[in-house]
Amino acid sequence: MVLVFLFFYNLSPLFPQGTSKIDSLFSFYPAHVGNKWFYKVSLTSSVGDPSSTLFCSREIMEDTMINNLTYKKILNLWDVYHYKEKSFTYERLDSASGKLFLIDYYNKEAEMISDFSMKDRDVYSNGSSILQFMGNSDREFMNQIIAAKSFYHQKYSLSRSFTYYKQIGLGNYTQYMDFTEASYSLVWCKLNGVYYGDTLQTRFSKTEELPLEFKLSQNYPNPFNPTTTINYSILKRSIVTLKIYDILGRELAALINEEKDPGNYKINFDGTLLPSGIYLYKIICEKYSDAKKMILIK
């Protein structure tokens, strides 16, 4: 499942009276590194599948260069049924024009997904996609009335509508594709280290600790006698094998051979029945594999 979001640049305090053109453009896009948004997502299908609810969060991890332009790297986490999913998107707001560009699963090259300088009912089309400004409005969040801008974007069979709250970013977002509608509603956000909204509705106490990559760590202690611990990280749900080999490549033990959810794991290895020497341990999961040496000294 791949669901897409857009994110935003920050001004402080939350509701200042900015007057410059740059302030007015960035006030709907608070995208400082560390800013985070948490959403409740309702999924409905037009082909009879039951409706469901899940949760997701988006966090700005860092600035990164793509084609000599600075993008925000966004970590997207979903609580999807009984497991977790994650992905990265890349977004750039052009401060001179107010155009917001997105690179994601659907857009391998930068796609203009919003334009904060658009006037009421302005429409932009490049042949493959259409962007329409749906107007300004007032929305309620945190028991306050907040100025908002709404857009509609369509590219081929994917259509999206989204509403940005001033000084907050994306408040509501709806995506429709393949007979499924996903409606996102903002629950809380963290801007410049300050939380706003209902932070009690949080499902990511463990998800926030999910790794950013597949990784096999060096065992500890090493050298060891006779036990040692092997740590490894799984980026997404996959079949994982972890095996022990001698220095000639002969398999001695299979520590793991099962499907694992994303997360950080550790397993103990007992070398009591083995002689002193150098051994290898190797992990295989998805397209990732790695092997490391460990030394048993008795």
Can you write the helix and strand succession as a string? HEEEEEEEEEEEEEEEEEEEE
Question: How does CATH name the architecture of the largest domain?
Answer: Clam
- CATH fold group of the largest domain: outer membrane lipoprotein receptor (LolB), chain A
Class from secondary-structure proportions: mainly beta
CA-atom Rg in angstroms = 24 Å
In short:
This protein is mainly β. The chain has one helix spanning 21-26; strands at residues 36-45, 52-66, 69-80, 83-93, 99-103, 111-115, 123-125, 129-141, 144-155, 158-165, 169-177, 180-191, 194-197, 215-216, 227-234, 238-246, 251-260, 263-270, 277-285, 288-296. Residues 1-20 have low confidence and may be disordered.
Structure explained in plain terms:
With 298 residues, the protein is mainly β. It is built from one helix and 20 strands. Strands 1, 2, 3, 4, 5, 6, 7, 8, 9, 10, 11, 12 and 13 form a 13-stranded antiparallel beta sheet that branches. The chain has a four-stranded antiparallel beta sheet with strand order 17-16-19-20, with no helix packed on it. The longest helix is centred in the N-terminal third of the chain and has 6 residues, at 21-26. The chain is elongated, with a radius of gyration of 24 Å. 28% of the residues are buried. Residues 1-20 have low confidence and may be disordered.
